[in-house]
Design brief:
about 180 residues; alpha+beta; Rossmann fold; seven-stranded mixed beta sheet; two-stranded antiparallel sheet
Length: about 180
Amino acid sequence: MLQGARKEHAKALVNAAKEMNLDVEIRNLRKSEEIGLIDGLILPGGETTAMKIASQSEDLLSALWHYVETKNVPILATCAGAILLCQNKLIRATIERNVYGGQLHSFQTMIKSTIGDGEFPGVFIRAPAFKSNECEEIAYFDSEPVGLLDANRMALTFHPELTDDLRFHRWLLTSALKTKGL
């Protein structure tokens, strides 16, 4: 996991693993040599510029992108993480930052999702918006896609880690198990 809402994602991942009777080990990636130890990846929300700067000294991002492409590692990317996925062409979509406004315009609303059962409490904080995509649309705010799935890479413009609904973290764990052949 890179810089961002790591603690919240870690808690959600641990809780999802408990529900699924799985043991998980969570790693905060800081160096490129740690990349080979992961079976799934969360690109959390945060500030994309800070994430890029923090990972540049170790050449972490370029090594990470190469690893996930060659090893088919599943990714759950939220908000700024979704921006990084789109900017690095790891998902077939384009995205624009802060479309729903700045920090003061943050909001929570029920969104439609094809992952899991029923609606989902979407938390939008300085949220980006997808401008175009060639992906499976898996979540909607009104009629706008706010969640995309491209093979085993999921990009969300909202923050599922700030809710008690674990469906997207369960998806990541299930995808990691499938990739490992379990």
